[in-house]
Amino acid sequence: MKKSIRNIAVFVCICGVITLLLAGTNLITAPIIQKNQNNAANAALLEVMPEGTGFEALDMGGYSLPATVTEVHKETAGKGYVIKLTTAGYGSDMVIMCGVSADGVVTGAVCLSSNETLGKEKTYGENFMDKDANGVEAVDTIAGATKTTDAYKNAVKDALNTAIILGGGTVDIRTEEEILADNLAAALPAGDKKFTKLFLVEVVEGVDAIYVADNGAGYVCVVGEQFVGVDAQGALVTEGVADAAVITDAVAKIKATTYKEIDVTAYSDLAAYVLSAKKTASGNYVVETKGAGYGIKGGDEYHPASNEYIVVRVSMTADGKILDCVTVSQAETDGLGDACASESFYGQFVGKTASDYAEIDAISGATLTTNGYKQAVQRAFDAVNVLKGGDR
């Protein structure tokens, strides 16, 4: 019994000694580890602000900053800020670190991580050195990577705006979507701030886009940077419009549009890839076609990853010019191929013909999706050619 108690006492003493040793080791090493971590963090900050002497993290809670901003560090000697941002490239996120000096110019920018595959965004930040807001806007985009480099530029502009806000200034940090929504609401208040972009099936001269109020209150026509409200009866709501007749004629044309359904099953060579087809009274066509993207394997064979095709709606003149294009459905990879459902992608096809539609920017990292989408668009050209009596 005494021996057992003695053994337990010895074991407890050993554990106590080990605990003390570990505590002592931690007491010695913890500051070293923390210092190394701080040095590593500062190294990343110094990469975009080499003249910095030290940095402290800022609490962003008291500021209204761009949504892309995730971290802010202030240079302790007052030389500026280092801002970390997360922005969407072409269907994937990019994490960007940007330094902004106290006088509002970029001291450095670097892409810390990205799923983009072109790789050029890794050194693209060098183009922004010593640039202010106007200089950033003038930086060239990378050919073949327009969406990726535009996203990079917008992130750098967000960093510059953040520095202005932190310095006590004011700046409009609304997103493009928020600005659009505000402009639509201002042009047609009766629309109750809910609008849908109209899928155009007619040639409307002098109008860039038409939005329809979800509650049926009317339309908003976009002409350059001007937003013009039109009520449900076709009368202008916005005052002082220089080319009022252009606007009212466009809305009248859209309202008067009628369709004739086309039985695609009557065309044996269309039924396999054309889901529906219509012809307007003015002679234009609206077709829905399918293409095999990443979710489809072996051309037209189903792949268990999605069991779905990319379905595209295209409106086109009889002579083969695309009036509008939109993704009806898709089941491509989240964060990559699903970018085909973004207007920034499918909007590129507007105005294209069979001779130049293939030149649009591909989705970075989603070649099969891009090819499948182009396949669907090509099938729309083929369908219109057949429907008007030509050959495929």
Provide a descriptive summary of the structure in words.
The protein has 7 helices and 16 strands. It is α+β, with helices and mostly antiparallel strands and 392 residues long. It folds into 4 domains: 1-46; 55-166, no CATH class; 179-255, no CATH class; 259-387. A hairpin with a 4-residue loop joins β7 and β8 (218-223). The longest helix has 47 residues, at 2-48. The protein is globular, with a radius of gyration of 29 Å.
State the separation between the terminal residues, measured CA to CA. Answer: 99 Å
Strand content: 15-25%
Largest sheet: 5 strands, antiparallel
> Secondary-structure element sequence?
HEEEEEHHHEEEEHEEEEEEEHH
Based on secondary structure, the structural category is alpha+beta
Whole-number average pLDDT? 85
Strand order of the largest sheet: 1-2-3-4-5
Number of DSSP E strands: 16
